[in-house]
Amino acid sequence: MSFAIETYELSKSYGQVRAVDSVNLRVGLGEIYGFIGLNGAGKTTTIRALLGMVRPSAGSVRVLGQAAGPNGRGPWRRVGHLVERPTAYPELTTRENLEVARRLQGISDTSATSHVIERLDLAAYADRKAGGLSTGNLQRLGLARALLHEPELLILDEPANGLDPAGVVEIRELLASLAREKGVTIFMSSHILTEVDRLATRIGIIHQGHLLEELDAEKLEALRSRRLIVKARQLEAAQSALAQAGFKVQAGEGALVLDEARAVEAPEKVATILVNAGTPPFRLAVEQEDLEDYFLRLTGEKL
Amino acid sequence: MNAFLAAFWAEALKARRSKVSLVTAAAFSIFPIIGGLFMMIMRDPEGARAMGLIGAKAQLLSGGRADWPAYFDFLSVGTAGGGAILFAFVTAWVFGREFSDHTAKELLALPTPREIIVAAKFVVAALWIVGLTILIFALGLGIGAAIGLEGWSIELGWTSFWMLIITVLLTLLLMPFVALFASAGRGYLSPLAWAFSTLGLAQVAGLMGWSDWFPWAVPAQFSLMFSVVYGQRAVPLGIHSYILLVLTCIVGAAATFAWWLRADQAR
Predict the structure, then answer these.
(1) With an 8 Å Cβ cutoff, are B108 and A72 in contact?
(2) How far is the C-alpha of A249 from the C-alpha of A259, rounded, in Å?
(3) Integer Cα distance of B175 and A108 in angstroms
(4) Does domain A3-221 sit in CATH 3.40.50.300?
(5) Is the entire prediction scored with pTM above 0.90?
(6) What value of ipTM does the predicted structure carry?
(7) What percent of chain B has pLDDT over 70?
(8) Out of 3.40.50.10050, 3.30.70.270, 3.40.50.10860, 3.40.30.10, which CATH number does the structure's domain A224-299 have?
(9) If you ran DSSP here, which 8-state letter would residue A279 be given?
(10) Measured between CA atoms, how close is B266 to chain A, in angstroms?
């Protein structure tokens, strides 16, 4: 078994709507796979198909080497999951909700519940009814349930949803350490692309049900475009000087943008041209396209 | 078996922690209390006449009698009729709450098979309903003794208890369809609409004299058949009536299991 998740021509239709169309995913063991797409792109449908919650209209799904679904069968003892917004039985406490999950997971170690409560920093809310938890703490409870049985594979739909900035960092570090230290494979969807950017070792981009691209983080790094941002007191004069020097210059908001390689790789030459023209720059910066920009460029969507 | 015990423990915990268990107990307690009130009214015919409509209703429902046999009849027939709705409410909650609370998705990709979870839900609903029945019988005994009803014997008490339990068990056979509607309808509205519809259709079947062929009318007819007060109103049930009832249970349960195993859980 070399892949934690494999889908073959996975398709799912609801009536006339093709939610997922011929998706071939390969998630290697130990990878942190970021699955990104717009709302309605097919992320959650794909995740539900991986977990055997929906029956593929065509194609198949294998998780940890076993066929998943459609009758609920799969290697679920080895898989932790969080699908869409976290939910819990409101009349049960945090601890009781996790106790229910522990028993249904078939975990005999009764300390597993307390352990995961500590790990997710839920001790202060352990005996509080889940109906009164904030969205962030409900998200922590959902993550605790996913991690309770120390799975080999985590399938997480928007794991950072509802968390405050400190919580986002905490969960990112937790997931990174699980992958690094315990070899846990993580398949996560997110709309917070900076989170995926920081965490994922491999990224899949889904758009309108199609998997547009699958690429390693290193390859993404190489594909991202870079550009030189120039700010000067006299922008028009600076633009004119650079144009005379043969650069293609775009005027942005209070700045000039140069995306040619000779500008990006030699910003000192650009500075020299501007100084000689009597309009020295007060800011020169090489900026790299982030995942969000790359995603929007690839999908043809605009901000 | 361990998987079943785990699922049963989980379902029992949800039921115990819910306020719904108290609400159903309170709602079901109304039967013996109203029955006791009617018995008190009927023991005082002058007073009953003075009470007008309530007195007339008490006269109708108790057959003009105020003793233990009439009181037990009231409990049994009342359970067969009103119980069908209340038991449907319990079943609808046990299955439908997973959809109204959006927790169903937490039950689908687990080492505990889905069919075990569904079986545990059926068992908890059945025990809950039988528990409610024992509660109203015990409450009925207390109320009957407190108002000093006549005609008591141990034999009558046991016979009435088992008649009530059998009536409830027959009613339980109708619950799988309620569970199916709670699951496929993803909440409480569909199963309750189903329960009220079948109760109404059972009344129509009774008026047409077809109660023995309509499974949803069988439990009430069973309780009527053995009633000292209402016995003459009963449509005789045959073996076909019980076979149809059991088939209804099997079809409803099979459809519920199949739905949990095979239906898309996209919400």
Answers:
(1) yes
(2) 8
(3) 33
(4) yes
(5) no
(6) 0.86
(7) 89
(8) 3.30.70.270
(9) -
(10) 6
